User: What shape does this take?
Amino acid sequence: MFGSRGDNLRFPLLLSISYDNLPILLFDGPRKLLLDLMQSKSFANSDWLRRLSESHSKASELLGKSQAEQERQGYFHTLREICQQPESWIRTSEQMLSSAGALKHCVAGIANLVLTGSGSSEFVGECVRLVLQHELGVTAQTIGGGNLLTCGSRALPQERPALVLSMARSGDSPESAGALSLLLEEEPRIRHLVLTCNEKGRLAEGFRGHPQVTVITLPDGTNDRSLVMTSSFTNLVLAARFLGLLHAPKEYEDLCLKLSRVATGLIETHFGTLARAATLRFRRVVYLGSGSRFGAAREAALKMLEMTSGRVSTLCETYLGFRHGPMSFAHTDALIVCFLSSDPVLRAYESDLLSELDQKELGLAKLVVGENIPASLARKDDFIIECPALAEVGDENAPVIDVIVGQLLAFFRCLEEGLHPDLPSEGGVINRVVPSFTLHYPTGAKPV
Assistant: This one.
């Protein structure tokens, strides 16, 4: 079904979103944040959503309701933000290509690259670290924003010159600006690159124009309004991915287009499959991935945890690591989500592990994501998410596809739990932006 439209994926943005009836409860924080969010634009195209509705009864049920009813049931934003990703990736690629000159200056001569963020933004780094390390020929390391804030430059690799890439959806979380500010004070010669979805966030506004900091803001529609990160996550992954292809801009542009096609096919083909999988009586989910796809497993696990308000427990592991204790998590109420590699050697290891799970009769069911998935890997009640052309883009670029599977599974499970995907956290335990907290700096430090 996918792949027949080619460049028609560059469809015009026909969906006009009205915010006249927007429930205030969808947002936390000051009035300025609310107004900023209300002004940003979605990439969710009306033709695309209509086509999806015609293909799946579940999509028709959800999208057939009025906007006011979708907002009342609390899924209006999240569903569009998940579905807009194929189109948004094209826009992000255009944005990054236009910033190539500044990015080449950032990476020129560096000895190491540090990718940082908090929560989902940290997992962005896990999705691209290995491929950037290979393509740039430098040491690449992912370090959480909290670790940089508490340990400062001691957490960084020793080689210099260094580039620290800070990634964030809003850029308003306390760690984001706090960690960057501390590093600028402690090691003023380190270069910094900020990738954010919010041009008015503290991370963007506070450091734009600083001589050691380059700030790039992604298209405004990537700044998700939902509590959970969806399109912001995958767009940050693809934005960071360009660092390894600065010398091959056409290859990067083609890659983003191919991924857009794969994602379109995935959503069109398996929207209903994932809705059905979410109805299983699982109370825990295991996510397995190798290499860069372990980053996708971490993000998918967090999405399920967030969107079910902690009612569904999650665990993420590598295939080989799963044998070392975590396999005890695979009870009869566990769904096991498997991101299956296209690499022959990795797939052999992964297939062995899945066969072992079947032999031991572990888990309630498996949900396997990949291309050319052998029938032998599936038990009677398992779900197969076949993604044509996934092998062509390669494992190093597959995390954004895996994450969409995780997002849709979590979205549907959220609805099954009677929660609201736009604001799933019961009692406001978590927020769209982590509230301010006191920052403690080392004696003598005077962060900018």
Remarks:
- The first strand starts at residue 112 and ends at 117.
